[in-house]
Specification:
single chain, alpha+beta, 2 domains, four-stranded mixed beta sheet, 295 residues, 9 helices
Length: 295
């Protein structure tokens, strides 16, 4: 089976962990636990405070993946260096309050309140709670103020953490520079459009992309955006059909909504928000993705 190492390209602002999802079957196959008062030495951490502990990423652990459409099967893994880098970027981007349920539903009242990397498996405090995890594992504590999620925890319907984020294939990165890689990724999307594509996004999304392109034509892109982001703006501006994967990426751009009210020229945020369709495009993508999931 093909084995792929995933890495973070820090030059790409999209790379890193965007959110932590609470799931029934975590891909890393380690369950978090609800901390009970009698199980811990830290008095401020107990069951009444609804705190969950568990690994977010374990280095060098093979994770099975399968594309149901193509039936392709492969395994991915993260090096110890990538796990540490992912944990740092998660904090630096202030994504501690981004949480979802089963990678599908955004959650309120969920916060990662502590994270650390296991440097000494024998001495790490994770051992106090029954974990036997390798060096380099990224551990997190999550505060659960969401009553519905806590009920699922107590019922055993939620058993672990699963990350949401963007990574790159290390092999592809090693044989081509960043620009070529992004162009290839874009071409793959275009090929996928022939199989399944959608062009019913609102005219306002196209107009937003046109605004971004006109501004860039007059002022230049500077350090803003990637080849994929620029290609997306052209795609939307021309009203071209887009794939489900592209719709998912547009929906995920909700994480950057804080840029929607900024002025063009004030950094890259507003420019790239418009390039991906702006409010109209992102909101349509969220609705469309939910529709496709229910089909």
């Amino acid at each position: 089976m093909e084995l792929i190492e995933l890495i973070i390209d820090e030059r790409d602002p999209m790379h890193g962990i965007e959110a932590v999802s609470v799931v029934e079957y975590p891909a890393i196959e380690e369950n978090f636990i609800a901390l009970a008062k009698h199980e811990v030495q830290l008095k401020e951490i107990d069951q009444e405070k609804r705190i969950l502990m568990g690994p977010a990423l374990t280095p060098n652990k093979k994770i099975y993946r399968k594309n149901e459409k193509t039936k392709r099967e492969w395994e991915i893994y993260f090096s110890e260096e990538t796990v540490r880098k992912a944990s740092h970027l998660f904090q630096m981007k202030s994504n501690q309050n981004n949480a979802t349920l089963e990678h599908a539903t955004d959650l309120d009242d969920m916060s990662v309140v502590e994270t650390w990397i296991i440097d000494d498996p024998k001495m790490d405090k994770a051992n106090l709670y029954g974990f036997d995890l390798p060096k380099g594992t990224w551990m997190i504590l999550m505060k659960v103020n969401n009553d519905d999620v806590w009920k699922k925890v107590k019922a055993g319907e939620v058993k672990g953490f699963s990350i949401e984020g963007y990574f790159a294939d290390k092999y592809e990165m090693s044989i081509q520079n960043k620009e070529k890689e992004e162009i290839i990724a874009y071409l793959k999307e275009i090929l996928d459009v022939k199989l399944e594509s959608y062009s019913d996004y609102p005219k306002a999304a196209s107009e937003n992309a046109k605004v971004a392109l006109r501004w860039a034509e007059e002022n230049g892109w500077g350090s803003c955006g990637t080849s994929v982001g620029k290609a997306r703006a052209n795609q939307l501006a021309k009203g071209e059909p887009i794939s489900r994967d592209t719709i998912a990426r547009m929906a995920a751009f909700e994480r950057h909504r804080q840029n929607s009210d900024k002025e063009l020229g004030d950094g890259c945020g507003r420019l790239m928000w418009l390039a991906w369709g702006g409010d109209a495009g992102v909101e349509w993508a969220q609705r469309k993705l939910e529709q496709l999931k229910n089909q």
